[in-house]
């Protein structure tokens, strides 16, 4: 869903770089303020020196100058990472500033602070309020700032079409060079996410040249990465590799972790596809060097995945396992981050809808009160009009109550269901599975857990696109639903990983179901996508006889068996048997299933 989408902390920082109000050439303090505004994104060290000089002269500042000084100090604290100190300062300035443009900038600074601190719900709420004041802003540059922040926030939460609308409003209003550069960056990325990039590369090159002229090298290289991704998607990986390698020294000189990590992660993927495992490993290690600053990010997921595949190709199974475990943890953290942003968007959207409904209802009530006063003046029609008004009021309240209830039910379903496949998401699967296990424990029933992971799923995404990958995940979910009873729990744990909790089933029965699922996955016809490829899965099976009624232990045992199935060659089932708890040297513990389509599937350690 959000595989090509990433946090643009630099964009958030630079998007607020606008010239402050009127310049008084005769006042040295005003000159310092203007220079500090310009240096904020282009030269952070110079900005800090200028801010020190400004603070030394703050006792002599006018009321307007003090507001601008407060804004710069709040900005400095927030983008140094001291958000807990900068945010209250920005909030106080937004409440007390007499100048409307300064109030707007302070409010937008709060939006950035919330975004940098991963408080997306608060950030979106703040943005919703601030954009209502946009028509009152006098300065064109500050209006562009507000639209830029709105574009970045929407791009972060996956609303690329809305982000595109904001940046196109900026570009249509003849922005300055730096703003045009940054708006072009978001425009290119949003169009790429929406599949709207033009066939010709001329406009993209113009955007890169604009950013280079403004010395915004980070933005220029984000656009270059988007261009390289376009070429790679069209099958010209060599050209993409050449472009990124040519500008990699410039990318590293920016010292911007997200940019460096994204470029190297993409290079690692491309070089591995070309068979250059050594380069792929080197680039992946370069991503890990930035890991402290790019946690819960897609480049980190790609880097661990590449290291896993390189180790697997070399036959270094121990290193491959360590890399895969890191990949799995990074992937889950990234998916949780994406879901948090989606949830924040849905929460604020629902709150906005409720406020609109409440305002509409209050308007209706006010209108009815006015009509009632008029009715009081018309004695002959008093009774009839009062009855009519009461009926309308009750109907309106009932209608809005019905609408709100429907929205609440819809949100509940969204919170419980995986949006792509329609099965339980991880959170809801955990709740239902724990309830089912508790009931099994009370009734003395057995329970079994099947966990499976699609084989080489990344290759499907890389070769045929994420749309084909999403189609495959939907088909897998539909295939598995057919083997589940109403009392069983089927869920998508994340990525291409699924699990089934089977109520009242022993280990052998669960193994049969797992084998049926395995065979059914292999029979999925992929011609509908326009491509021909195999869909197979590796399965791990355990039961309450092995692990008791603890979901965590069931998942742990099934996960170990799943990894074992992958290491044994994939497209198979491994079952957690009692003997596996105390393995004997030279011994084996194998469960054989009946012959199926000319082959005997062996399940076990």
UniProtKB/TrEMBL annotation:
Q: Which CDD domains match?
A: GGDEF
GO molecular function, a single term = diguanylate cyclase activity
Q: Where is the signal peptide?
A: 1-25
Gene3D superfamilies xrefs: 3.30.70.270, Tetratricopeptide repeat domain
Q: Which chemical reaction does it catalyze?
A: 2 GTP = 3',3'-c-di-GMP + 2 diphosphate
User: What's the superkingdom here?
Assistant: Bacteria
Instruction: State a single Pfam family of this protein.
Output: GGDEF
Check the record and name the PROSITE patterns matching this protein.
Answer: GGDEF
User: In what ranges is there compositional bias, type Basic and acidic residues?
Assistant: 594-605
**UniProtKB keywords:** Membrane, Nucleotidyltransferase, Signal, Transferase, Transmembrane, Transmembrane helix
Q: What is its EC number?
A: 2.7.7.65
Segments spanning the bilayer are 385-402
Q: Which segments carry the region annotation Disordered?
A: 577-605
Q: Taking every annotated instance into account, which residue ranges of this chain make up the domain GGDEF?
A: 445-578
Query: By its UniProt entry, which PANTHER family does this protein fall under?
Result: DIGUANYLATE CYCLASE DGCM-RELATED, REGULATORY COMPONENTS OF SENSORY TRANSDUCTION SYSTEM
Name of this chain's protein: diguanylate cyclase
Source organism per entry reads Pseudoxanthomonas putridarboris
Upper taxonomic classification of the species? Bacteria, Pseudomonadati, Pseudomonadota, Gammaproteobacteria, Lysobacterales
């Amino acid at each position: 869903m959000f595989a090509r989408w990433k946090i643009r902390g630099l964009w958030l920082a630079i998007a607020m770089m606008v010239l402050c109000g009127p310049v008084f050439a005769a006042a040295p303090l005003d000159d310092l303020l203007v220079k500090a505004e310009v240096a904020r994104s282009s030269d952070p060290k110079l900005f800090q020196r200028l801010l020190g000089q400004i603070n030394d002269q703050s006792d002599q500042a006018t009321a307007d100058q003090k507001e601008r000084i407060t804004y710069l100090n709040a900005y400095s604290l927030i983008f140094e990472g001291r958000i807990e100190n900068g945010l209250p300062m920005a909030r106080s300035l937004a409440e007390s500033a007499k100048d409307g443009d300064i109030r707007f900038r302070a409010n937008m600074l709060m939006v950035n602070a919330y975004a940098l601190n991963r408080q997306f719900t608060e950030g979106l709420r703040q943005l919703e309020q601030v954009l209502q004041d946009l028509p009152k802003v006098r300065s064109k540059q500050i209006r562009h700032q507000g639209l830029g922040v709105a574009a970045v926030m929407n791009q972060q939460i996956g609303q690329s079409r809305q982000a595109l609308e904001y940046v196109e409003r900026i570009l249509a209003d003849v922005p300055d060079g730096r703003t045009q550069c940054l708006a072009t960056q978001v425009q290119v990325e949003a169009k790429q996410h929406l599949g709207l990039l033009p066939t010709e590369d001329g406009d993209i090159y113009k955007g890169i040249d604009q950013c280079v002229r403004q010395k915004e090298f980070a933005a220029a290289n984000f656009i270059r990465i988007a261009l390289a991704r376009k070429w790679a998607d069209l099958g010209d990986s060599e050209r993409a590799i050449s472009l990124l390698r040519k500008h990699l020294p410039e990318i590293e000189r920016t010292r911007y972790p997200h940019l460096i990590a994204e470029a190297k992660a993409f290079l690692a993927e491309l070089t591995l596809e070309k068979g250059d495992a050594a380069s792929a490993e080197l680039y992946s290690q370069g991503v890990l060097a930035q890991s402290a600053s790019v946690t819960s990010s897609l480049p980190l997921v790609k880097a661990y995945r590449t290291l896993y595949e390189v180790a697997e190709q070399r036959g270094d199974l121990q290193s491959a396992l360590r890399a895969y475990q890191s990949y799995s943890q990074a992937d889950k953290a990234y998916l949780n981050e994406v879901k948090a942003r989606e949830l924040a968007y849905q929460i604020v959207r629902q709150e906005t809808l409720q406020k609109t409904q409440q305002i509409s209802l209050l308007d209706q009530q006010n209108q009815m009160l006015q009509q009632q006063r008029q009715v009081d003046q018309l004695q002959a029609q008093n009774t009839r009009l009062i009855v009519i008004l009461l009926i309308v009021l009750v109907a309106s309240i009932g209608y809005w109550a019905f609408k709100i209830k429907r929205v609440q039910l819809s949100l509940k379903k969204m919170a419980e269901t995986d949006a792509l496949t329609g099965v339980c998401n991880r959170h809801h699967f955990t709740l239902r599975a724990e309830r089912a296990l508790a009931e099994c424990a009370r009734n003395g029933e057995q329970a079994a857990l099947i966990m499976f992971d699609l084989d080489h799923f990344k290759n499907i995404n890389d070769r045929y696109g994420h749309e084909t990958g999403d189609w495959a995940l939907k088909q897998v979910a539909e295939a598995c639903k057919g083997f589940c009873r109403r009392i069983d729990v089927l869920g998508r744990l994340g990525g291409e990983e699924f699990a089934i909790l089977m109520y009242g089933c022993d280990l052998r029965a669960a193994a049969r179901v797992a084998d049926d699922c395995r065979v059914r996955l292999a029979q999925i016809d992929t011609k509908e996508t326009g491509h021909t490829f195999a869909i197979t899965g590796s399965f791990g099976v355990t039961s309450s006889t092995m692990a008791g009624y603890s979901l965590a232990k069931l998942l742990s045992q099934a996960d170990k068996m799943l990894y074992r199935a992958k290491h044994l060659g994939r497209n198979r089932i491994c079952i957690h048997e009692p003997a596996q708890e105390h393995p004997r040297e030279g011994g084996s513990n194998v469960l054989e299933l009946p012959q199926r389509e000319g082959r005997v599937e062996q399940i076990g350690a």
